[in-house]
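Today's session is about reading a structure prediction critically. Students often jump straight to the picture, but the first step is always the sequence itself: look for stretches that repeat, for charged clusters, for runs of hydrophobic residues. Only then move on to the predicted structure, which in these notes is written as discrete structure tokens rather than atom positions. Here is the chain we will use throughout the hour.
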Amino acid sequence: MSSLVTVDRWGQLRRFTAARIALGRAGNSLPTSALLEVGLAHAQARDAVHEPAQQAQMQQLLESAGFEVIAVRSAAGDREQYLRRPDLGRRLDEASRARLAGRAPSPAPDIVLVVADGLSAQARLRHALALLQILRRELPPLRLGPVVVAELARVALGDEIGQLLGARALAILLGERPGLSAPDSLGIYFTHGPAVGRTDAERNCISNVRPGGLDAAAAARKLLHLVQGARLLGRSGIDLKDESAAAGLDRLRSGSGGHADGILQL
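Below is the predicted structure for this chain, in token form.
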């Protein structure tokens, strides 16, 4: 049967990417192995979207690592409603709103970190803690607020959370919509001056955070660069460019100091 499969001559390039290229063909279709791989990836993506938030497990994981945690949820009643009504995932339910209003730190935090399930709860469960541990080490002397663990959350939920806690900036770590390459990709959305009504043009996104994509140290470096840039510029979004790679190269050329892992200093 193997003689019926036409091998793609670009097959050697597959070792450089997880993208589905050079799969070959069997007659007018894909080879059986490639077809089964696509079917499996599609099933994993669907499972990730429908997987429960595992809110208690995420909260326990962070508290065991020494983080102060506040648990909240959006106005969506359940996972099904969350998927059908994105608008409900962008605002808090009444109990969460009251809980945050009573926990606003004084003085106001320079940045609040939100860990949200989004469209892949497994993404935050697998990757968020490693990223938060790096940020906790590197963010001082900034005042770091409590970590908010959010259930049934969309990106804009962070705006209301940040506003209630009086945060000067906010980063929400959120499970991205799964694709056929990875069901556990984490996204980071950074907003300077979070407030209800902020648009997507007013925030910056760092995507594909996972061991097979952008690792935790590299993602932290990019976020710290954005935090620093927003403090100087006074805003985030389309006017704030991610030039962390160029900044790192300049530091290497100049021989300037810093941590061994290359994290930018604020």
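Discussion point for the tutorial: The helical segments are 32-50, 55-64, 79-84, 94-101, 121-138, 157-164, 216-233, 244-254.
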